Amino acid sequence: MDTRTLKKIYSKLSQEDKTELKSEKIELALVKDFKSNVDKLENEFTSLLKEQIRLANDIQQSENKLQSLKKQFEGLNTDANKIEQSFKELGVDIDANTDLYISKLDTRTRALDKLIQKSQKSYQAIK
What we know:
rod-shaped
């Protein structure tokens, strides 16, 4: 073989090596970008998951407070029933102001029941 032919062969071989290296670099860059994007999404997912857990805990705490408040309202409802019964036994009408408080108590008790139901549904949706 003459020198010119050898140079052509080496030239071709070096071009093929460069092409192979370029494609490997491109593949490595694609893999690197892919991994970076997966890591970004994983971090965002973890952050949102923590937020969902915090929201679920907040809703659960709120529901516990609502349940506690409802028990207090139920105790007052018992008192209101005793007051109404006492007035009936005495044959006296309940004054408007007391009747207003009894009515307000009843309205708030029903509103609490609705809030508790909504709270339970929200908790189940997030849980």
